C-alpha cells in the first residue's frame, strides 16, 4: 500500500480538522415529475470512507455536486460543522467526470495551476505523480495521454492540495487494477490520517467503512 | 491572490500555447483593415475620414472573436468547478480571466492600430490619440463581453447570442472611442470624450466581474 505523506504541519494538517463534519439533512432533488431522492440524511465525519452506490441515474453525481455546493437542493440543507467562518468550498476536493485538465498544458502545468488555484504546494507535484505511477508523464501535454493516464494525473491533485474532505465521483473509472489499488490505498491513508471521503463507485473499495445506497429512493412527486 | 495569479498565468500560457488564441484577433484586425481600401475605392480623403470608425469597429469585432469560448472551455473540462472550490471570490477569478483576455487581444490591437492607421491614411496627429483611445476603451469591450460570455456559458454555439448581447452594450464605448480619434484628426481638443471613455471603462470594471460571476453561479444552479 503506498504511503501518503500529508505532511507540512507537525502531526499532519488533518488533525486540525478532527471536529469537521459534513452534514446533510432532508435533502431532496426533483427532476421533472419525480424526486431522485427525498428526505435524505447523511453525515460524514473524520476517518470515514463512505461508498455511495446505486444504479445509473439514481442521483449519485447529483448528490456529490450538491454536497460540494455547486448547486442548491430543492429541499434540505448541507452544512459543514467545525469550519468556522471560512468558505466551505475551501475544505473539499471535488473529483468528477470532467477532470479539470487542459489538453494543451503539460501534467505539471495543469497541476501547478490547480495548486495555485486551490492553495496547494507545487513542489509536491513530481512526488504525487510518482505515487500514482505516472512520474514520467510530468512534462507531456495532457492531450497525448491515454484516458487512464489522464485520470491518474488528475487524481494527483488530491495529494498536491491538502483538503480534509474528498468527494470523488467514479474515481476508479478507466483505471487498471494496479491503479485501483493505489487509489483505494490513498483513500484509506487519507481517512486514517483524519480525513474523510465520499466515493461514488460501482467497484468494491477496500477502504470503505460506511455505505450510502441511493437505489429505490426514487418517488413520484405529489 | 495566488488563485488570481494562477488563473492569469494559465490563461496567458494557454493563449501562447494555442498560438491562434493570441494572434487570431490581431490577424482578423489586420485583414479587416487591409480589405477596406479595396472595398471603398481609391478615395483617400474618404478613407482617411472613416479611419477612426473603421479601426474601432474592427477592434470591437476582434474582441468578440473567441469570447464565447472564454468560460465554455472551463465549463467543459471541469475547471469552473475547481474555481468554485478555491475558497476565494469567484469575482476575482473572473477578473483574472478578463485581464488575460485583454492582454492577448486589446493590448496588441491598441499597439498595432497606428501602424494599421497608416494603411487608412489616417491624419498623423490622430495616430497617438487613436492608440490611446483603444488602450483606454478596449478593456471596456473585454469586460462587457465577459458578462455575455458568462451568460452564454452553457449554450452550445452561443457565439451569435453573445454578439447580440454584447454589441448594443458596447455602443457607448464605441461612440466615445471614435470621438477621441475624430477630434484629434480634426485638430480639436479630445479631453472630454477621452474622460467619458475612461468613465465607461471604470463603470464596466466595477460592474462586469460581479455580474459575470453571478451569471456563472446561476448557470450551474
Count every helix of chain B, treating DSSP H or I runs of 4 or more residues as helices: 11
The count of strands of chain A amounts to 9
Number of DSSP helical runs of chain A: 6
- The rounded Rg of chain A comes to 17 Å
Question: Could you tell me which chain pair has the largest interface and how many residues each side has?
Answer: A-B, 30 and 27 residues
Lateral arrangement of strands in the main beta sheet of chain A: 5-6-7-3-8
Largest sheet of chain B: none
Number of domains of chain A: 1
Low-confidence parts of chain B = none
As a percent range, the share of helical residues of chain B equals over 70%
Q: Which H/E pattern describes the elements of chain B?
A: HHHHHHHHHHH
Largest sheet of chain A: 5 strands, parallel
CATH architecture of chain A: 3-Layer(aba) Sandwich
Question: How would you describe what is shown here?
Answer:
The complex is a heterodimer of chains A (222) and B (221). In chain A, 25% of the residues lie in helices and 25% in strands. Chain A has 222 residues and is of the alpha/beta class. Chain A has one domain: P-loop containing nucleotide triphosphate hydrolases (Rossmann fold), CATH 3.40.50. In chain A, the strands form 2 sheets. A 5-stranded parallel sheet of chain A has the order 5-6-7-3-8, sandwiched between helices. In chain A, strand 6, helix 6 and strand 7 form a beta-alpha-beta unit. With 221 residues, chain B is mostly helical. Chain B has one domain. Chain B is 84% helix and 0% strand. In chain B, helix 10 packs antiparallel against helix 11. The longest helix of chain B has 29 residues. Chain B starts with a helix and ends with a helix. The relative contact order of chain B is 0.15. The interface between A and B is medium-sized, with 30 and 27 residues.
